Amino acid sequence: MSLDEITVTIIGFIKDELLEGKGVVLSPASELIDSGLLNSMFVIRLLAFLQDHYQIEDISNNDMHLENFRTISTIADLVGRYINAK
């Protein structure tokens, strides 16, 4: 699975679940934390979705820092590392 496909999936989830279909434009470089779009509760929902959707058993505590969730691109990179590690 390519990073582009992962990115599209993440954008779709954020639009459907967080933005509830509002017309906000998101790109891979969209700042999620600095913009206030992501809060701790939504990060937990996003993690649960990613683990279920991509069959990731457990994301390491070492990867649970804000830099990995700052943008859609950094989240896609994180998911990509776990998928490729299988």
TrEMBL record:
The lineage of its organism: Bacteria, Pseudomonadati, Pseudomonadota, Alphaproteobacteria, Hyphomicrobiales. This is Carrier domain-containing protein. SUPFAM superfamilies: ACP-like (SSF47336). It comes from the Bacteria. InterPro entries: ACP-like_sf (IPR036736).
